[in-house]
């Protein structure tokens, strides 16, 4: 993996992150993969898509400053979509275990994030039916 950095505040590890560059066409993760990491796009464009038989259905294009993979990392469900670099892209990768530890340190933040993810999953499920 790329460069590693730990950000500390008042002696508590806030976040452990890695930076990695994905080349155009390279997969960040596949639909069904375990949720090990969340990604923050530092530069480039990432396509989020699902495979429907022989076809690929684009769900989103994630660009600089946006997160992806956040729902699966919180609720622990397998990835509901795949993600690939549309162009050479650099992302900051945040490890699931580190994020969950931080949510334990700040239970209010953890509860808020968990609630938001549940609501997003429910909306996603409803939209996929239409």
TrEMBL record:
Residues 19-103 form the Cyclic nucleotide-binding domain. This is Cyclic nucleotide-binding domain-containing protein. The lineage of its organism: Bacteria, Bacteria division WOR-3.
